[in-house]
Amino acid sequence: MLNVEKIVVSYGNIKAVHGVSLTVNDGEFVVLIGNNGAGKTSTLKAICGVNPPSGGKVNLNGEDITGKPSHKIAAKRVALVPEGRRVFAGMTVRENLDMGAFLRRDKGGIEKDRETVYELFPVLRERFRQPAGTLSGGEQQMLAIGRALMAQPKYLLLDEPSLGLAPIMVENIFEKIIQINRQGISLLMVEQNAFLALSVANRGYVMDSGEIVLTGTAQELLENDMVKRVYLGMDETEEIPI
Amino acid sequence: MVWQQLINGIMLGSVYALIALGYTMVYGVMKFINFAHGDVYMWGAFFAMFLARFLGGQFLPVLILTMILTGILGVLVERVAYKPLRRAPRLVVTTSALGMSIVLSNLARLLIGSATYPMPKVLAVHDFKLGSSAVINNIQILVLVTAVILMVLLNWFVNRSRYGRAIRAASEDQETAGLMGVNMDNVVSVTFFVGSALGGAAGLLVGMYYDAVYSTMGYAAGLKAFTAAILGGIGSIPGAMFGGLLLGIVENFAGAFLSNYRDGIAFLVMILVLLFRPGGLFNAKIYQKRV
Lengths: 242, 291
Hints:
By secondary structure, chain A is an alpha/beta fold. Helix content of chain A is 37%, strand content 26%. Chain A has helices at residues 40-48, 70-74, 93-100, 107-120, 122-126, 137-149, 167-182, 194-200, 218-223, 225-230, and strands at 2-11, 14-24, 29-34, 55-60, 63-64, 78-81, 155-159, 186-191, 203-208, 211-217.
């Protein structure tokens, strides 16, 4: 279980996150939705040790990992697919995947997992010698996810995987994300596209101005009036279009 | 005449390239110019001189031990002068590097002396005639072969090894490399060790070739190698290799045909490159795959 308790994240004098608590149970698919600047990315970065929180606690299966450097948290099998993909552009697709497995020494296992990633995203196999910078946005997103999977994560944190992608590509990637969750990897996903996020997740949190303002099962949130109005852009009278 | 200058230029250039790699690797990972690198190279030459005195004319053991000692010196310099400034603006770190440069060269004067010392002979000099006009001796061949082998090894290390990949990843995006489990402290130490070890090897080779080691030898060589790194595109490993060779050749031809202006010509080339191709000839902001 990944348990975040009242974390505070500040950049200088500006508080981006004040007192956010959330939980991801084993095998669960949890989404964090909210507007731009609500503090979603800061929350993920605080969990991963990129921007250590200035207050609160992050617990992983009962172990306190608050404020540990990111390379130590990576060793605890918590992986982040960062916003904007952040693939190593000058390195080949295959080298990017190998970077994901940086902490592993089991050559056979790495080989096997690389095959698994290639099966999940066949286009990566076709392009394995290509520099990652030459891939399309969608392919880079696939690579970023594949790279994170190479670390054999128990908890996979995804930051805006749909950002800047064509609708058909978004659909494709979300299908794969669901598959990853079905394999038993717990997911915490930040997503601006609230409808899409809630239609695939088990539970959700709604964030606004650095705080959690609402939480519930994905279904409850989809039916919530406030969520409908603010995040799904619907009138209360309208039905959810499927 | 032309062939002779080309041979001399390639030889000198291969040494510039070895030193330039230290600048470019550190810049790639830490984004500052390690101005103390020239003095680390000078210390490498002194390490080599003492080792050669102890071990006699055994080239390979002297080379390997020189590289290890110089590598350790580079790591120590980083720990003392740069690590405490990891989060400081780059200008501050660069200033610290300038300070470290002065400390290292003065330390050499204090501990060893300000004279010019001969390098114990590792082998007797033989000249070989190439055609009718050019001459190459076995020391030149040894310098060139050693430099090329070291660059091939470095290329293997950077492109094929686990830590080499981590260095390239960190030079592109430190934050994301950290998410992959890369410990930046280790990457920085490995980078300084490898870059300084190559500088140490260059110190031995230059000391051997000119049969002279002195406490201020790091200044001019460091500046030239820095120019070579800029020429190729700072941060690019193949760029440093290419830039070193080019600078060595240009300088030798300028020296042969325009006598006293060789240094001026070398830096003029740098200014022209910066004006017309600021990213360097390889135009690289990051480590590139293969040479």
